[in-house]
Amino acid sequence: MPAADQETYERHSYDxxxxxxxxxxxxxxxxxxxxxxxxxxxCKSLLGKAHTVMAEGGIAAAMANLWPEDNxxxxxxxxxxxxxxxxxxxxAELHAKEAPDRVYELEQWGALFDRTPDGxxxxxxxxxxxxxxxxxxxxxxxxxxxxxxQQRAVSLGxxxxxxxxxxxxLKDGGKVSGAFGYWRESGRFVVFEAPAIVLATGxxxxxxxxxxxxxxxxxxxxxLALRAGATLLNMEFVQFHPTGMVWPPAVRxxxxxxxxxxxxxxxxxxEGKRFMFDYIPEFFKxxxxxxPEEADRWYTDKxxxxxxxxxxxxxxxxxxxxxxxxxxxxxxxGVFLDIASRRSPEFIKKRLPSMYQQFMELAGVDITKEPMxxxxxxxxxxxxxxxxxxxxMSVVPGLxxxxxxxxxxxxxNRLGGNSLSDLLVFGKxxxxxxxxxxxxxxxxxxxxxxxxxxxxAEIALAPFAHDQGHDxxxxxxxxxxAVMQDLVGIIRTEHELRLALDRLxxxxxxxxxxxxxxxxxxxxxxxxxxxLRNMLVVSESVARAALERQESRGGHTxxxxxxxxxxxxTQNVVVELKEGTVSVRRQPLPQPPAELxxxxxxxxx
Amino acid sequence: xxxxxxxxxxxGDSSGGDFVHYEVPADEGEVVLDVVHKTQAxxxxxxxxxxxxxxxKCGSCSAEINGVPRLMCMTKLSSLxxxxxxxxxxxRTFPVIKDLVTDVSFNYEKARQVPAFSAQPDQPVAPFTxxxxxxxxxxxxxxxxxxxxxQDTCHVIRDHEENKPHFAGPRFFIRYAxxxxxxxxxxxxxxxxxxTQGLGYCNITKCCTEVCPEHIKITDNAIxxxxxxxxxxxxxxVVKFFGRRRAGREKRGx
Lengths: 605, 254
Hints:
- The complex is a heterodimer.
- Chain A is α/β, with parallel strands linked by helices.
- Chain A has helices spanning 23-34, 72-82, 89-108, 141-156, 220-227, 259-262, 282-285, 292-298, 313-325, 345-351, 353-363, 418-441, 450-465, 473-487, 494-512, 524-548, 594-601; strands at residues 10-13, 16-19, 39-43, 59-60, 123-124, 134-135, 159-162, 164-172, 175-183, 189-193, 196-199, 232-233, 238-245, 266-268, 335-338, 372-381, 384-385, 399-401, 491-492, 557-558, 571-578, 581-588.
- Chain A contains 17 helices and 22 strands.
- In chain A, the strands form six sheets. Chain A has a five-stranded parallel beta sheet with strand order 7-3-2-11-18, covered by helices on one side.
- In chain A, a hairpin with a 5-residue loop joins strand 9 and strand 10 (189-193).
- Chain B is α+β, with helices and mostly antiparallel strands.
- Chain B folds into two domains: 3-102, Beta-grasp domain (Ubiquitin-like (UB roll), Roll), CATH 3.10.20; 105-245, Alpha-helical ferredoxin (Fumarate Reductase Iron-sulfur Protein, Chain B, domain 2, Orthogonal Bundle).
- Chain B has helices at residues 32-42, 105-112, 132-141, 149-153, 155-158, 170-181, 190-195, 207-211, 218-229, 237-245; strands at residues 3-13, 16-26, 62-65, 68-71, 86-89, 96-98, 101-102.
- The model of chain B is unreliable at 243-254 (pLDDT under 50).
- Chains A and B meet through helix 3, helix 4, helix 11, helix 14 and helix 16 of A and helix 1, helix 2 and helix 3 of B.
């Protein structure tokens, strides 16, 4: 194997390089291309396989196709309240205003959403949204979205680098100058020269054991940003989706869409009780039904209040967790989700075809006849790269972030359906602003130094030189997942977080010494060894931020600080790398202008 | 409930390879992908395999299991013959890169050749008015997760490399069908489909339909329908037969 400094690297030069080809990355690449930038799109998997493909429920956008009362102000309000008011108000505003146009744009490019009787895009109910607001295609909306964007990007002739992993961002002075990575197929290194880079790498969930996330979700973008000098915002907020499969063990964590509840499904404990009525927080009392009768009327008449089964995800996940801990769980440690007794088999198969298929084929459960067993699963990170809300640029000139990897939009908790719309709204903005930034640099493009590429190559090749007696990357990954699952899960305490940080130090040492077998050609063990480095720094960011925030809010629950604290309502926790060490600080949360603040106070009805 | 399972996994690269036996612990409810992952973690860290969602939604983990093209994540061990070794080989129609990973770039080339959706002049700008009954036929084809199992099993190209340049394959026949049946698409791709994408090569043996994990009726609803629609463009013996059988059935769109 050649030493890193003897290898010549494949080189490419672009105006904008987008890392990640899910919804945000594809939309950013399309926008950058349409703005006139020479654009490259890089993805770890084949095109069209990114995590967006798994999104089920829909795209939240106040198109008011079913409820004329809906508008961007209501969507803004729902988003901010769902995020426990910790969202960046400007992102929530842009998102609510621009989401409808981003949905129409998909239709313009060939997407076929389910329709209303009068031929418009149909919209479905989801947790935390006052009106039926999610554009959808059965329960495979993410597939429709990624395919539409993929087909658009391909028809525009955008250069796509499939199965290529970026391991380092390169800088010239303080500015982004490019990216370094390897082809998964050959293990050969590639250098991209580009003044503007858009991170669209998604989330971090593969560091937990029970997760709905795929192998790609190793926090690459979060880690790349940290190492490039950018800041991360509110990493303590991790969303545990209330409904993941629990049985059989092989499918534990697999997502069960919120549409099951949006379309009428109810949560039951082992006593057959709709327990969510016991968990309505003061904050949502005014807008939540307090009897099953009222809750059931809501599906057809929005003058009633919303069922508590459709409270924001953090509330429902905590409630399920508590029911199981209190001994009222289902046989395999979850609770029941029942739609069989509440809707007809025809309705269920039409509205939830892939859920029907998933339970039938993987669990042998017919959801039109019996209830599902479900429990929370690690699903999404609200925290991410701190960006300017309008341009999506981080504190590092030339480095942009959009989608799950960016922070601020969702505050302490994301509403279902707001992710797909987030990807579109901010993907487009990031792509446009990245192109604009690159064009403005004109002659003064930052340079890629050979030395920085060699450094990156050496780090990437290190695992091959390690003694085979050391741990393999798979076992270190499993240990990491156990630490994060057991000590940095839904409910946290100072003691456990400190324990987790100690364990992460040990794991960092182990990861730095992991040995890989074989050669550089399509070698998943080697790939995982490199991903571990990212997972570890991101996991530490989550644990440190979680230790810092001494309150409970949204996707961050501290058993030792069970209440929300007015002081913390005004604070973001910012994570950065200082001399290679993860450090945290507090930073005041930007406050909305008076006319938007007023929207947040209005009563629901 | 744990038991030992013998896997025969083809390992090698474009220069050749052979089966390697692994004995891995298997548990209740597991799918083939689970035991492949265990093989990686326990015995073969560099075993190459593609996967993403592990839920039958992304179409990455396609392979041939006991000779049948399937998704590894949706093939339960309990559905395979008990007490027998499970044989896993890469997709045969595409060149091997390494182990279970093949070079599927053929499909991405064919995708680039499809003229994109283009709205009709009388309704050029979204939001479009379209009705559920009119979008449903295309929606069936848009369920496709691009696992390439239909491409893999199709005998037109499975053992006939020479046909590949002239044949888009079942996945793209449903793509052309989807666009043709889109209520607001204004382009006619039928000539292209027949003359350069090889629709006529298909003699409707329905192998593609059988392996589709999304249960899309590829042959009946897309290929035969498109053969009927291109009949004005070119003579196709299959249509002559099926066209008569299907006469009188609803025919909508272009």
